Amino acid sequence: MKTVTLGNTGIQVSAIVSGCMRLNSLDVGEAAGYIEKAVASGVNYFDHADIYASGACEELFGRALAMTKIKREDIFVQSKCGIVPGVMYDLSKKHIISSVEQSLKRLRMDYLDTLLLHRPDALMDPEEVAEAFEILEKEGKVRFFGVSNMKPMQVELLKKHVKQPLVINQLQLSAAHSSMISNGMEVNMLTDGAVDRDGSVLDYCRLKNMTIQAWSPFQYGMIKGPFLLNDEFSVLNGKLKEIAEMHGVSTTIIATAWLLRHPANMQVLAGTMNPKRFEEVCKACEIQLDRQEWYQIYMAAGNILP
Description:
alpha/beta, TIM Barrel, eight-stranded parallel beta barrel, 11 helices, 18% strand
């Protein structure tokens, strides 16, 4: 299993993250087996959020982990907070602390390795966030902190008051959803790909030693769903298939390897509960695409080289 350094902590973690958003599709025995298989594959990082199945995924994970022989200190457990589904975003001090405490109770744990702020909150007061982080760190409930889906200036606003390093930014990224790459490639062009939708967040994270966790690595946008085997992305799928056959692997492996090839040393979030698909994602760590293969996939996704 390939490893990456988590932000500026110096700690090595698996390049593949087990995304637990769909964990509640399993029963407790299946969930225990899933966790054991992930760890056996070299994955030591598990991603949660307080809203996943309204907390049921965290609760199931806690019960399932207790059925295994896996030591708590041998894995990284991450959760996110800030979304009140269908109502609002809430990054108030009260909500952050309450969310963490409830997550820990459901997970049957004393601490989270990492806590991410799930989405930007228009009413966020960075001083309140800083107070929440101070309390959570002092009480030993959170080791490291980060954000999710935030632009560089939003991170900078937080850093004005937050003392702890922000070591992660979880962002949507895939071969078919790669605007954070294309806007850096099509500099000074009047093309769609040149539009900077995120404040050069890719370069910013690299400059600030923030680990990017790529979520939805096989999807485009929030609506269209997976691009793999999707006729709307026939050119991309054709190129993935061609390169996959050259390597003797699946297109899932190549689509994952495309992300891992980027020098930003990203983590890839695998949200599948399908054992075969999860195994394929992990095997991507064994594939090193060459430069030409990477660019062929990039252009097959509809991007251009000016």
